[in-house]
Amino acid sequence: MEALAAGILQGSRRAVSQGISLVESSRLDHQLLAAKLVRALRRERREAAAQSGGPEPFRIGVSGPPGAGKSSLIEALGVELLRAGERVAVLAIDPSSESSGGAILGDKTRMPRLSASADAYVRPSPARGTLGGVARSTVDAISICEAAGYSKVLVETVGVGQSETAVQDLVDVFVLVLPPVGGDELQVVKRGIQELADIVVINKADGATKAAAARAAAAFKSTAYFHRQRRRSWQPTVLTCSAHSGLNIDKLQHQLADYQAAMVHSGELAQVRQHQHRRVAWTAAEEAVLDSFRQNENVKWLLARLMPDISTGELGPRAAAELLAAYHAMYD
């Protein structure tokens, strides 16, 4: 663990990959080692930050529906950040294979320019059924990337289910990427989502979809005042971009920088992170209890005997859950 921690602190991509693989492991012995590793890294990073007085690493969450071009936009933004002297890490939370448990979309193959840079690190991680498509180990993976010296950490979610809300507990800014839709499609997409976003990006704003992107951006801007402002220090913004042509990628970078500066200056960013730490700790505790419940031999024994009645409907789901919980409490 000491050698692995030293390699991560020196910025070794190999060590970073080994550390993230450790925190993603479901083995109990690996989880204990991962907890020890992350604690050591966080302690070292706090001490280094206290001595240097430099800016904290910035965490950017990127979400949106499938087909919006999230990966392409992340690569274009990542390349722009590299040009500005940043070191960039991308944690792409992919859907999981039911058979192997691994990530199946392979975002690394869709970010070739970013993956090839010595100052960038791209890691696809399997969601493994975690609520919202945000892997439970992502918060520790972020800590590893920050300890390795990556100043910007981008977290891309699956973009389905509750990933838009789950990612907020992990990042400093939430960027919602949308395709250039309109009419009824726009009503479906924007319902309940725009109010979560700090920056809304209408992607693919070039070629045949340029006009549709402009209309979608105008529609989002017109409804912005209906939503309660999430941040005291920041008014949500809407802009059109094209990951393909590079249109307005520099503007997106500047907006992210403006957001970071405003939130840091007001002290609100520190408050947001404190709230996130509490939420993540509680969620991790809930998931640990659920894992323990599922792996309990007594629970598995009773479930196997109840399953025929559950399958036929003779025993309802709620009754089965109550029986399992009572049995676990009695014999654990």
Short description:
The protein is of the alpha/beta class. Helices cover 53% and strands 12% of the residues. The chain has a 7-stranded parallel beta sheet, sandwiched between helices.
Question: What would your notes on this structure say?
Answer:
- The two termini are 32 Å apart.
- About 3% of the residues have low confidence.
- The chain is globular, with a radius of gyration of 22 Å.
- By secondary structure, the protein is an alpha/beta fold.
- Helix 2 crosses helix 3, helix 2 runs antiparallel to helix 6 and helix 12 packs antiparallel against helix 13.
- Strand 6, helix 9 and strand 7 form a beta-alpha-beta unit.
- The chain is built from 13 helices and seven strands.
- It has two domains: 214 residues, Rossmann fold (3-Layer(aba) Sandwich), CATH 3.40.50; 36 residues, no CATH class.
- The relative contact order is 0.10.
- Strands 3-2-4-1-5-6-7 form a seven-stranded parallel sheet, sandwiched between helices.
CATH T-level fold name of the largest domain:
Rossmann fold
Please identify the top-level CATH class of the largest domain: Alpha Beta
Strand line-up of the largest beta sheet: 3-2-4-1-5-6-7
> Distance between the terminal alpha carbons, to the nearest Å?
32 Å
Overall average pLDDT:
85
Q: How many domains in all?
A: 2
**What's the helix-strand series?**
HHHEHEHEHEHEHEHEHHHH
Biggest sheet architecture: 7 strands, parallel
| Total helical elements | 13
Q: Just name the CATH architecture of the largest domain.
A: 3-Layer(aba) Sandwich
User: What's the number of extended β-strand segments?
Assistant: 7
In one word, what is the shape? globular
Please tell me how large the radius of gyration is.
22 Å
Q: At the fourth CATH level, what is the homologous superfamily of the largest domain?
A: P-loop containing nucleotide triphosphate hydrolases
Percent helix range: 40-55%
Class per helix and strand makeup: alpha/beta
Beta-sheet strand percentage? 5-15%
Low-confidence stretches: 96-106
InterPro entries: AAA+_ATPase (IPR003593), GTPase_ArgK (IPR005129), P-loop_NTPase (IPR027417)
GO molecular function, one term: GTPase activity
Family: Belongs to the SIMIBI class G3E GTPase family. ArgK/MeaB subfamily.
Protein name: AAA+ ATPase domain-containing protein
